[in-house]
Amino acid sequence: MIKRIKHSLEYLIEKSFQKKTSEKEEKLLNDFALSEYQNSKWDDLAMGSSEQASVNIFEGIQLRIDKKNTFHLYLKYVAAASIVFLIGLGFLYKPSTSTKKQLVFTSSSLPKSIQLSDGSKVYLAANSRLDYPAQFDEEERKVSLRKGNAFFEIAKDKKHPFIISSGGIKTKVVGTSFHIQLSKSKCEVIVVTGRVNVTAKGQSVDLVPNEMASFMAQKLTKQLADASLLVNWYANDVTLNQATLQQVITVLQYKYGVKFEYSDEAVLATPVTVFIEKGASLKSVLQQINYINNLKFNVYGEIVKVN
Questions:
Q1: What is the pTM of this model?
Q2: pLDDT tens per residue, range 225-283
Q3: Rounded CA separation 147/167 (Å)
Q4: Measured between alpha carbons, how far is 110 from 249 in angstroms, rounded to an integer?
Q5: 248 and 204, same structural domain?
Q6: Is the dihedral of CA 57, 90, 69, 24 positive or negative?
Q7: Contact, 274 vs 248, CB < 8 A?
Q8: Distance, CA of 130 to CA of 112 (rounded, Å)
Q9: Fewer CB within 10 A of the terminal residue: the chain, N end or C end?
Q10: Burial class of residue 158 (count of CB atoms within 10 Å of its CB; 0-12, 13-18, 19+)
Q11: Please, what is the angle between helix 2-17 and helix 23-39, to 10°?
């Protein structure tokens, strides 16, 4: 049907240029183009200036026919409606580039969450940043984790893979849940559900639940993930029962975007039971650990020292 319409339109336009159209055919062209013009919608953000696009189309038509005739009335409408109609038929005009509206989502001292236009949910750790488009309207759904850590729950869509850029790696999924932890020295991807593909510097690994990838010093590796990391501790309350202080610290680093420093590594083996409420502050969690285990923590911005 579309091919037939395209052929008929081209035939009538060419016939009109040769001044061989009848009065009825000329009216048909005018009425058709006017209808397309009135029903068309123009997205200035994605398509640029409609006036400039019309000029470009006029120039393209001029080159095509190699004449300097005065344009018929219907050509004005065809140019104005070209994005809606002519691209659908596959000829005359296609923008070479498009500018997508990008948004920035950040968190400060506490984790925050956001739902994207496709229904995917992202839980940002404290002190983190995510760049994302206002709408996903391309073959791939692309976002960027610019800073910090996040947990992703991706809406399934096999036709439109979801891709997260973070540091030097790209994580590609179609519908799954996983953590991404980004720091200056490394980036880690930890899969909770589904399948994930991670690529970096020509290297690639596929991950399934309970597996993680780590990209550090230009090398991408795969290994089993710590069981304490296989939950969404941004959105839920978490109890770590008789976990090591190392495991607790790992969760706290990811959730609150801080770094722990300690002078004695032996303290990391200390057994700790701690309840981390969803909206709890870092200070309250540290006070809980200190009360139970008599460990002292001093917070200096994004650095926590263990004594």
A1: 0.64
A2: 988 788 887 788 888 898 999 999 988 988 888 899 998 889 999 999 999 998 899 99
A3: 8
A4: 16
A5: no
A6: negative
A7: yes
A8: 11
A9: N
A10: exposed
A11: 120
